[in-house]
Design a protein that fits this description.
- The chain has 4 domains: 4-18 and 172-315, Molybdenum Cofactor Biosythetic Enzyme, Chain A (3-Layer(aba) Sandwich), CATH 3.40.980.10; 24-39 and 139-170, Alpha-Beta Complex (Molybdopterin biosynthesis moea protein, domain 2); 48-132, Beta Complex (Molybdopterin biosynthesis moeA protein, domain 3), CATH 2.170.190.11; 325-397, Beta-clip (Beta Barrel), CATH 2.40.340.
- Helices cover 19% and strands 30% of the residues.
- It contains 7 helices and 28 strands.
- The chain has helices at 4-14, 153-161, 199-210, 225-237, 256-262, 297-315, 369-372; strands spanning 20-24, 37-38, 48-49, 53-56, 66-74, 88-92, 104-107, 111-114, 118-121, 131-132, 143-145, 166-170, 174-179, 184-185, 196-197, 214-217, 241-245, 266-269, 274-275, 281-285, 288-293, 325-330, 334-335, 341-350, 356-360, 377-381, 386-387, 392-397.
- It has a 6-stranded mixed sheet, with no helix packed on it.
- The model has no long low-confidence stretch (mean pLDDT 94).
């Protein structure tokens, strides 16, 4: 039985990198950049007005009110090209180019037009007032985003602004999901006596897609080692990663590990000092990654987030491939396991003082997926440790 940290080291060392591909920017949300993104121009590309008003030389408004001649206008897409002289002003709109000779924009509310040819500036305009200077946001050639960043909706406008109609990203990992167990029936079926619905596959599919993977849910494998070996072999032909749920313990009907061994897979670990999720398996066959996860839903979720997610993100060259960590205050006594580290589902919220507080979810075991559905974090409890109300503990935020 190895610690979680050592299990993650095995996964990182055995995970391969996927090739890159170029796709349309509009299709890139959630994908991992395989190139750095640079600006190809100053932004803004000229001194830009932040207000509707009048572009002026601030010196001429020092003793406001000041009467200036209106000599033209500057609007977005069509600036005023002549340089301002003494006693002149240019009507200007938000986003428009500030003409040469002007060093301030006085907003329209602080002006008054006189017969259409003149404007009275009612208050002094300070130098640089209401102007965004050229390259104030970013200079040409500056790096905006790094290789390894996952593209979000907030990033799209910035990438598009610098001409990236297409972007280079890592290929999506292809993940096959195989649930095992003769007691499992499809989600659409009504379970008979001693049967349960296949909730694990649909949960794993959602988790995997959230990491950027392409997924395939396979037909349920019954408790037959020959059939299981055949399904594993077929799945690996068209997948980068195979996730198997169930059959990883040591019971008479747990065939996952024997099937992997008979197929010639290299098993790197098969027991982890982890609660829930002790019987998690990580193996490799013909350069394909295989994860054997327990059958209980919460164990599946925890081991996916700790292990499978790490591998899928590393395959794509992503930054920050492990769950984000933090610290929070325990609200009530919580007991850990004697011989294993615990990663218990909890709900973490911010109190009125701005502190993160851990609320227990009455977690009764690894089959309690109802409690897990309300969790937003995992509480780390080292083996043999119990927390009292008011203690500070490490948490891992669920993705």
């Amino acid at each position: 039985m190895i610690p979680v940290s050592e299990a993650i080291k095995f996964i990182k060392s055995e995970t391969f990198s996927l090739k890159s591909e170029t796709i349309d920017l509009s299709e890139s949300i959630g994908r991992v950049l395989a190139e750095d993104i640079f600006s190809d121009m100053d932004l803004p590309p000229f001194d830009r007005s932040q207000m509707d008003g009048f572009a002026v030389n601030s010196e001429e408004t020092r003793n406001a009110p000041a009467k200036l001649k209106i000599i033209g206008e500057s609007v977005a897409g069509k600036g005023f090209d002549r340089k301002l002289k003494r006693g002149e002003a240019v009507r200007i709109m938000t986003g428009a180019r500030v003409p040469d000779g002007a060093d301030a924009v006085q907003k329209v509310e602080l002006t008054r037009e006189l017969n259409g040819n003149f404007v009275e500036i009612l208050e002094p305009a300070k130098p640089k007032r209401n102007i965004v200077r050229r390259a104030e946001e970013i200079k040409k050639g500056e790096q905006i985003f790094r290789k390894g960043e996952r593209i979000t909706e907030n990033m799209i406008a910035s990438i598009a602004s610098f001409g990236y109609a297409k972007v280079k990203v890592s290929r999506k990992p292809i993940v096959s999901i195989l649930a095992t167990g003769s007691e499992i029936v499809d989600v659409s079926e009504k379970p008979e006596k001693d049967q349960i619905r296949n909730s694990n596959s649909i949960m794993l599919e959602a988790f995997a897609r959230k990491t950027g993977a392409a997924t395939k849910v396979l037909p349920i494998a019954r408790d037959d080692i020959s059939n299981l070996k055949l399904q594993i072999s077929d799945a690996l032909k068209s997948s980068d990663v195979l996730i198997i749920t169930g059959g990883v313990s040591v019971g008479d009907y747990d065939f996952t590990k024997p099937a992997l061994r008979e197929l010639g897979a290299e098993i790197f670990f098969e027991k982890v000092s982890l609660k829930p999720g002790k019987p998690a398996v990580f193996a490799k066959l013909n350069d394909k990654l295989i994860f054997g996860l327990p059958g209980n839903p919460v164990s599946v979720a925890v081991t996916f987030c700790l292990f499978v997610r790490t591998a899928l993100l590393k395959m794509q060259g992503a930054e920050n491939i492990e769950l984000k960590k933090g610290f929070a205050v325990i609200s009530q006594k919580i007991k850990g396991a004697k011989e294993r580290d615990s990663y218990l589902p909890v709900f973490v919220e911010t109190n009125k003082k701005g502190n993160l507080i851990v609320e227990s979810l009455r977690f009764t075991g690894s089959s309690n997926f109802i409690a897990f559905s309300k969790a937003n974090s995992l509480l780390f409890i080292p083996q043999g440790v119990s927390f009292q109300a008011g203690d500070v503990a490490q948490i891992l935020f669920l993705p």
